[in-house]
Design brief:
heterodimer, A: alpha/beta, Glucose Oxidase, domain 1, Rossmann fold, 2 domains, ten-stranded mixed sheet, seven-stranded mixed beta barrel, 24% helix, B: alpha/beta, D-amino Acid Aminotransferase, Chain A, domain 1, Carbamoyl Phosphate Synthetase, Chain A, domain 4, seven-stranded antiparallel sheet, 36 helices, 40 strands, globular
Chain lengths: 357, 1075
């Protein structure tokens, strides 16, 4: 069935609607430039409620398999692609992408000039959009467009109850605040031999400290970090108590908790090819990124914070550490999935920080 | 300024002549390197023996040496120039090998030259099999079980342990020379022996065959600060077993999930770090389609053919960045040339699919083995981009110029289902077309085909999409919906016409009526994430928005020359690029259309706009519709561009330069004859026939031997000299199939001196920059002859006549721009053989030696400037005081079953130049540069045809006087004994005791002079002898003319010191004449 993506400013992109006329959706439209990893993207909770367009035009070539899911379900608002592959080929495949989209109820518009869409977002900035069928009435479209961008996304994606991934006796113990954690972060921590307890996003600081962790991990997650003041307040209480490490939203929340400020990027960083320079070593790593917000460098002035990583593309802050405490965080995704594994040793550094304190 | 403060002057080594496995990509890499160094304010000295390249232009480097790429010459040049650094990683395997040799000879140390980029140690770690194996084992990267052997016994022992099939790969060669897959002991012995011969270090690797796995490549870069990035991943359509140069390749990988992609990417970074490569590098993997298991197959520690492909596929200038790394920059210091705002330290993301398709020379080498394996056979390649695989593969196929416009070969129509099915397991150049045929007929499912071919089913399903559409078009009615779907799948108007019977013109009109038009998208390295100003575009029917900004400036399209093939090599790219430069100089917007990823012309910063598209009428007209140029220039893109002139003109496009009608007058036999009659200019007697009887009667009238060929030819395609009726009958049965619509030409074969002329005309004046005399008498294709500028033996009367004829023909044809004429001089009389109203193979050579920017002048003439305005006057330009010799280079080692004897069919793949103030020295340089290992002493075998025996006597005598031992076959020996030469008689092939082949194998013969007896069938022994010389690297001269010149060189060498090197700037500048 014919469908279209209409942006806030009225720009329309035509395509085919997958899943019939009910498969309409609304949300912030973002693009990801990764050429592989569509399943990981679709199951990354950080994309909660967003309409994701993939710049690579041939999507679904290797199907999907459970092992690559990054969370219990997909939270994306919708998917916009060029060609969607109906006959994938891969020995690991369990479902085709169309089957996966149906099962996960992900609205999808395909046969779209995604490059034109990307150029639009790049120049006009991230904006809201709706995916509708050719029969959707203008009044429905207007209603959908009028809906505000949801602010309670962390709530939607975080674990409802805490759970623990056990390890051998005496293993380092990490409590993870789940703002929308990707499975591969947990895999990375477990690979280091850590015991990990994942707690809901709104767990009070006292409850976390009561678990007596060796370190506290702040996960990635969706949305504007300023939408979760309660969480920031709790994180503030944790500073100085235990070694901490944050990724993505966790990194932003940590910065806000330390008194810094964040702002929204024009169109964000989403892809598997983002160069990040480590200012301490002078070396560059290619990273996976998915963020629409960044830390305001000026707001760090006077804070006990040292910028450790910057984006080589636009100079934005990609990592910092506390000048005296074992606290550090990065904006990008060292756990990869999808994306390069170049920075996976950051988890080792966190482990070392826990051991040393 | 360069990071390394000690660098002021750098010597760059080019890759030499074009051969299979080492083509135009190194001209692209090398010229980018030189420009990049000059940008840094460094003085650049370039050495390359190949005159057909952009990189050997005097303005590319401060000092350009067109000299043989040997240790002797390089050492002499280093001694003279005293460079601070040597850059060899952009000169292909040839450059790399030379760097290793220079380091080992001590020359680098002696003259205190720093090897830039990857170190010798690192090169060895990647190239020496044992060291590579050790390194991979140390870092835990898997490589197939293997053993390195230096003799045949080791190979057999290993086979007994591991079993078959086994892959045999010689160490230190190019393009997989001498390698192969052995399925049994007999094959193992044969391939191993050959491999040992070709390996520069006498080593061969025998390894477990993993044929059938996915072949995946990564282009990786590393800087001195250990920053590593991957530029591009590539997936071979053909599974492991076919050389990547002979594989259809897509970029990025299509069937790898993120886990697999990252697995191999991480391995790539680990490997480049372990090898400590500084610059670009190519890593090949085999990935098990059924698991995560993989093997590292090969690492090229340098810029390679794949790097050129990756550069064009992504827009990332690998060569340029490699150079900056080599002089000390780190990736994060280098600006991304595409975005100008971001840095070179990132990984390109593409939002299209790229297909590379090899171009094989099997149309020339009709008897060659067309199966594909580990030894590369392609001479060139095309690349295409689209938003779908179907669109990209179809663009690639119609860029090949092999007479197909979709996945269909006419000849397969006659094959029955059983034959089609049976041949699916055959790995050859036609497999893609065969798969499509099987799918169209529905005689095999994609699953079955994937099982048989081991090609991933994803690709087969895509081919099925195309096949299904074709069947639909064949059965159904052509309406707007069907046409739109056909275009979305990438079928050309011509294909749709073929399938539906609707005229092409009608389809085009229909497309315009229903707005079924392509849009053009930009290649920008970043999938549109950042604003870019790269004027590099491709078309797609899958898009709503067109990104091209059409200017109001005066603009002209230059058509490129497509893939490198025998008969149309890098020299036409040279011409296209110079034409673009000339237009830009004149303030005109220059747009180039081409599809060859190896070339300079497809570098996005050469022209104002680059359209990476097939060179067909439809694809060009679509761009014309978009850009509305003032016109198109066709005379620089070889026959590819010329062939489009008529259809473009018919569509109302202005052709700048010689008119389409005049082009036809030169190419159409009858019209050409008419003109010559009017001008009273003689040509060898000939007729044009369309059937056998006429041919036989005609040939009798003309008198044997006759030269026969189809009327429209490129590079002497299907041209032969026949000596009698039987041979003529044989030829006619084979050749008429070549071009059914065109008659066959039968000409008197004149055994005279061949002369070639390139001239420029504006319609009023005709300037002749130079004349070249061929060493080999007429009958050997001009591209395979040694050409000498200026002529050494022609009397002034002949030169006067040639000047006069050239002038008159140019004016009669109303040439505006370049023309090329071939003459034969017999008994003092000049005959015209052929006129090409376009630029030719010899234009770069002649431009360089005469210091006349021929293409620039011709472009301006085509635009309407007069020669007088440009300062040129009618007539021959005064010859220079030096001599330049152009010698052909062949790739026979790569093509088994190909006869090396020279004839009217062109066989060479490239050329070298030798230049000096003395003819013999120039010739020596050319021959040395061509890689002919002329022995200074030893034993020469003579075995010549009866017709040549008289002439051979004097030649053998001369060699004998130089101290060579002469051996000969019985008949030849008798002739020699008659003049008192003590020639030892050797047995013919099969006569066991003194079998010639055995003697060659045992290294007892150091050079062979062999001429072919008339007739094609009696020459089997000769063929075996000639092939043996190729396999064993013994020079074999198949023309007495060449042999005479070699003798002259040897005589000269004996008396005088030989290695003098001067830069081209010295010659054309007229300085240092006494060197």
């Amino acid at each position: 069935m014919k469908g279209k993506l209409i942006l806030e400013d009225g720009t329309t992109f035509r395509g085919q609607l997958f899943g019939g006329s009910n498969a309409t959706t609304e949300g912030e439209v973002v693009f990801n430039t990764g050429m592989t990893g569509y399943q990981e993207i679709l199951t990354d909770p950080s994309y909660c409620r967003q309409i994701v367009t993939l710049t690579y035009p041939l999507i679904g070539n290797y199907g999907t398999a459970k092992q690559f899911n990054q969370s219990r379900k997909s939270f994306v608002g919708g998917l916009v692609v060029g060609e969607i592959c109906e006959k994938p080929s891969s020995s690991s495949m369990e479902k085709t992408l169309p089957e996966f989209l149906t099962a996960e109820k992900i609205p999808c518009l395909y046969d779209v000039d995604t490059r034109a869409l990307t150029r639009k977002i790049r120049s006009a900035g991230t904006m809201k959009g709706v995916i509708v069928s050719e029969y959707t009435s203008q009044s429905t479209i207007n209603e959908m467009m009028a809906l505000p961008i949801r602010k309670n996304v962390v709530e939607q994606v975080t674990t409802p109850v805490s759970y623990t991934l056990d390890a051998r006796e005496g293993a380092p113990y990490i409590v993870t605040m789940d703002f929308g954690i990707k499975k591969n972060i947990l895999n990375a921590l477990r690979k280091l031999g850590c015991k990990v307890t994942v707690v809901p996003a709104k767990t009070p600081a006292e409850a976390i400290l009561a678990l007596k962790p060796d370190g506290i991990f702040l996960s990635n997650g969706p949305g504007d970090p300023k939408d979760v003041p309660d969480i920031i307040r709790e994180v503030k209480k944790l500073i100085g108590k235990r070694p901490m490490f944050g990724i993505c939203l966790g990194h932003q929340i940590l910065a806000l908790a330390m008194g810094a400020n964040t702002y929204k990027l024009k169109f964000g960083h989403r892809g598997s090819n983002q160069p990040v320079k480590n200012l301490e070593t002078g070396k560059v790593a290619i990273t996976a990124q998915n963020h629409g917000y960044a830390i305001d460098a000026k707001s760090l002035q006077g804070l006990p914070v040292k910028i450790t990583h910057v984006s080589l593309n636009d100079g934005t802050i990609e990592g910092f550490r506390h000048t005296s405490l074992p606290i550090s965080s990065v904006q990008y995704h060292p756990e990869a999935a999808p994306g390069p594994n170049d920075s996976v040793r950051l988890f080792d550094e966190f482990l070392a920080a826990m051991r040393n304190s | 300024m360069p990071k390394k403060k000690n660098l002021n002057k750098i010597i760059v080594i080019g890759s030499g002549p074009i051969i299979i496995g080492q083509a135009a990509e190194f001209d692209y890499a090398g010229s980018q390197a030189c420009r990049s160094l000059k940008e840094e304010g460094l003085e650049v000295v370039l050495v390359n023996s190949n005159p057909a390249t952009i990189m050997t232009d005097a303005n590319i480097a401060d000092r350009v040496y067109i000299e043989p790429l040997t240790v002797d010459f390089l050492t002499a040049i280093i001694e003279k120039e005293r460079p601070d650094g040597l850059l060899a990683t952009l000169g292909g395997q040839a450059g790399l090998n030379l760097a290793v040799q220079l380091a080992e000879s001590g020359a680098l140390e002696k003259y205190n030259v720093e090897l830039l980029g990857t170190s010798i140690e690192a090169i060895k770690k990647a190239e020496d099999r044992e060291m590579f194996k050790e390194t991979m084992e140390r870092i835990g990267e898997p490589i197939p079980e293997s053993v390195i052997v230096e003799d045949i016994h080791g190979a057999i022992d290993f086979a007994n342990q591991i079993g078959y099939p086994l892959i045999v790969r010689p160490a230190y060669t190019l393009g997989g020379t001498g390698g192969g897959i052995a399925n049994n002991e007999e094959e193992l012995i044969e391939i191993t022996l050959r491999g040992l011969k070709y390996s520069m270090i006498g080593q061969v690797l025998i390894e477990r065959s993993i044929a059938g796995w996915k072949e995946i490549e990564y282009e990786v870069m590393r800087d001195g600060n250990d920053n590593c990035i991957t530029i591009c991943s590539m997936e071979n359509f053909d599974p492991v077993g076919v050389h990547t140069g002979d594989s259809i390749v897509v970029a990025p990988t299509q069937t790898l999930n993120d886990h697999e992609y990252q697995l191999l990417r991480s391995a790539s970074l680990k490997i480049i770090r372990a090898l400590e490569i500084e610059g670009g590098c190519n890593i090949q993997f085999a990935l098990d389609p059924k698991s995560d298991n993989y093997y590292v197959i090969e690492v090229n520690p340098r810029v390679s053919r794949s790097s050129a492909l990756a550069s064009k596929a992504t827009g990332y200038p690998i060569a340029k960045v490699s150079v900056k790394i080599a002089i000390g920059y780190t990736l994060d210091e280098i600006v991304n040339a595409v975005t100008k705002t971001t840095k070179a330290c990132f990984e390109p993301s593409v939002d299209y699919i790229v297909v590379k398709f090899p171009r094989w020379p099997f149309d020339k080498f009709v008897y060659a083995d067309t199966t594909l394996g580990t030894q590369m056979k392609a001479t060139g390649e095309v690349m295409s981009l689209d938003r779908t695989f179907e669109g990209a593969i179809l663009k690639a196929v119609r860029s090949l110029e092999i007479g197909v416009n979709r996945l269909h070969m006419d000849k397969m129509d006659d094959w029955d289902n059983a034959k089609i099915k049976k041949r699916l397991s055959r790995v050859d150049d036609e497999r893609l077309f065969l798969i499509a045929e099987a799918l169209r007929r529905g005689i095999a499912t994609p699953e079955e085909i994937a099982e048989i071919t081991k090609i991933d089913r994803w690709f087969i399903d895509k081919i099925k999409n195309i096949a299904d559409m074709e069947v639909r078009l064949q059965k159904g009615e052509l309406n707007a919906k069907a046409l739109r779907e056909a275009k979305l799948l990438g079928l050309s108007d011509k294909s749709v016409s073929e399938l539906t019977g609707t005229a092409i013109k009608e389809i085009r009109d229909m497309r315009k009526q229903f707005k079924i038009l392509p849009v053009y998208k930009m290649v920008d390295t970043c999938a549109a994430e950042f604003e870019a100003a790269t004027p590099y575009y491709y078309s797609t029917y899958h898009g709503e928005v067109d990104e091209v900004e059409v200017s109001n400036k005066k603009k002209i399209i230059v058509l490129g020359s497509g893939p490198i093939r025998i008969g149309q090599g890098v020299e036409f790219d040279y011409c296209s690029v110079h034409s673009v430069w000339a237009l830009r100089e004149a303030g005109i917007e220059a747009i180039i259309i081409n599809n060859n990823p190896e070339t300079v012309s497809t570098d996005f910063d050469i022209s104002d706009k680059l359209y990476f598209e097939p060179l067909t009428t439809e694809d060009v007209l679509n761009i014309v519709d978009k850009e509305r140029p003032d016109g198109v220039i066709v005379q620089f893109g070889g026959q590819t561009a010329i062939n489009l002139a008529a259809s473009l003109a018919e569509a109302g496009v202005k052709i700048f330069g010689t008119s389409v009608d005049d082009i036809d007058r030169a190419e159409d036999r009858e019209r050409f004859d008419e003109m010559l009659t009017e001008l009273n200019i003689p040509r060898p007697k000939g007729i044009s026939v369309t059937n056998l009887d006429d041919a036989i009667t005609g040939a009798e009238n003309i008198g044997y031997p006759v030269m026969v060929r189809p009327s429209y030819v490129l590079g002497g395609r299907a041209m032969e000299i026949v000596y009698n009726e039987e041979e003529l009958r044989d030829y006619m049965s084979r050749a008429v199939k070549v071009t059914p619509d065109h008659p066959v030409l039968v000409d008197r074969y004149m055994q005279g001196t061949e002369v070639e002329v390139d001239a420029i005309s504006d319609g009023v004046d005709v300037v002749i920059p130079g004349i070249m005399e061929h060493v080999e008498r007429a009958g050997v294709h001009s591209g395979d002859s040694i050409a000498v500028y200026p002529p050494q033996t022609l009397p002034s009367k002949v030169i006067y006549t040639i000047t006069d004829y050239t002038k008159r023909m140019a004016l009669a044809l109303k040439v505006k721009g370049l023309l090329n004429i071939q003459y034969v001089v017999a008994d003092g009389k000049v005959y015209v053989i052929e006129v090409n109203p376009r630029s030719s193979r010899t234009v770069p050579f002649l431009s360089k030696v005469t210091n006349i920017k021929m293409v620039n002048v011709a472009t301006r003439a085509a635009l309407g400037k007069t020669l007088k305005e440009m300062g040129y006057y009618s007539g021959m330009v005064e010859p220079k005081p030096y001599v330049a010799v152009k010698a052909p280079v062949f790739s026979f080692a790569k093509m088994q079953d190909v006869d090396i004897s020279l004839g009217p069919e062109m066989k060479s793949t490239g050329e070298v130049m030798g230049i000096d103030y003395h003819y013999a020295r120039a010739l020596y340089k050319a021959i040395t540069g061509a890689g002919m290992n002329i022995p200074k002493n030893g034993c020469i075998l003579f075995t010549v045809a009866d017709k040549d025996k008289e002439e051979m006597k004097q030649l053998a005598k001369a060699f004998s006087e130089l101290g060579f031992k002469i051996v000969a076959t019985e008949g030849t020996a008798k002739a020699l004994h008659s003049i008192g030469i003590d020639a030892e008689i050797v047995g013919k092939v099969h006569q066991r005791s003194t079998d010639i082949i055995q003697m060659i194998k045992l290294g007892k013969i150091h050079m062979v002079v062999n001429t072919q007896a008339p007739g094609k069938h009696i020459a089997k022994d000769g063929f075996r002898i000639r092939r043996a010389t190729v396999e064993l690297g013994v020079p074999c001269l198949t023309s007495l003319d060449t042999a005479w010149e070699v003798m002259r060189v040897l005589t000269f060498m004996r008396d005088r010191r030989l290695v003098y090197s001067l830069a081209i700037q010295d010659y054309v500048g007229g300085g240092d004449a006494l060197a």
